[in-house]
Amino acid sequence: MCTKPNIWFFLLPLLLGSCQKEEIPAPGQVDAELASYLEDFINEGEARDYQPVIDPAILDIRFDTLTGAVTGQCLTYSDGRREIKVSMSFWANAAAFDKEFLVFHELGHCLLDREHLDTQRADGTCLSMMHSGQGRCRNTYGASTRTRYLDELFQAD
User: Fold this and answer.
1) CATH of the domain at 108
2) I need a surface site. Which of 4, 38, 88, 112 has the fewest CB within 10 A?
C-alpha cells in the first residue's frame, strides 16, 4: 500500500525556518565611546553620596542621527528601560566639556529622573546643567564651574 506524504511534513520546516523574531538588544548596551562618560557619571554621584534612581543596567546609550537642533534624548519605555541617543553630528565637532555636559545632562534625565530647570543665577548663568537650552540662561559648564554644576545635579531633593 502506497501512501501520499503529508504536505505539512515538507512545509512545516520551511515555515518555521523562515520565521525569525526581531532581535532586541539586551538592556545595558552602551556605545564604547560613551561608556567612560557613564562610568564618570556614576563615580561623580557616588562621590556625592548619591545613587541613581534608575538601575544603569536597564540603560542603553548610543549614537544616532537626531533631527533639528536636538543633540541628545532620553527615552523611557513602558518596560522600564531607558535609552539615550546622542547626535553623531554634534559629537563629531564638540569639545570635551560639551560632550561631558551632553551625556551628563541626558543621564540626569534617564538615571536621576531630573526635569529641565531653567533657573538662572544673578549673573544670568544657568543654575543647573539640567537647563533646557532654550536660551533662558547662559550655560557656562567648564573646568571652573564643573564641580558646582555636578554638586547641583546630584543634590538630593
Assistant:
1) 3.40.390
2) 4
